[in-house]
Amino acid sequence: MGRLTWPLRALPDGRGDVWRWDLGAVAELPSARASLRDRLGCVGFPDDEEDPSGERLVLAFDELASNALRHGASPVVATVIAGSGGWLLDVSDRAPDSMPAPAVDRDPAQGGMGLHLVARLSVAHGWYVDDGCKHVWACLPSTVEDREAAYV
Hints:
The structure is a single chain. It contains 3 helices and 5 strands, in the order E-H-H-E-E-H-E-E. Helices cover 27% and strands 25% of the residues. Strand 2 (76-82) and strand 3 (86-93) form a beta hairpin. The protein has a 5-stranded antiparallel sheet, with helices on one face. It is α+β, with helices and mostly antiparallel strands. Helix 1 packs antiparallel against helix 2 (53-71) and helix 2 (53-71) runs antiparallel to helix 3 (114-121). The chain has a single domain (17-141), classed as Heat Shock Protein 90.
């Protein structure tokens, strides 16, 4: 990643269909991931064997949401904006004074590498504070062309 901090950046202007999950506990993540996979399937994204971009989105969603649930404060809101060129993932929590902190000099076997992973999967990433909420975001590319419009 090159930098030891997650960059402080405003959220890009995301235009597209909005998918949102209100999360209160880590135990809700399997259901949220399944729901995200279902929505991807409904808009024409193939499974991981044909195109891994959808599964990369699910992985980034899980990493950012689990970080917010473990290290932030409830409520946590995970939002995916499905645009024509990719996805904008935004996860907010009520801990605006706690900035995202990628692990440094930690054995990957101990975990805590999620922010590094999301940074590598994304074309842009950052965080900002707005109205008492911390927002951590990432833009992920999609490689499937001519997909149908998303339905909520």
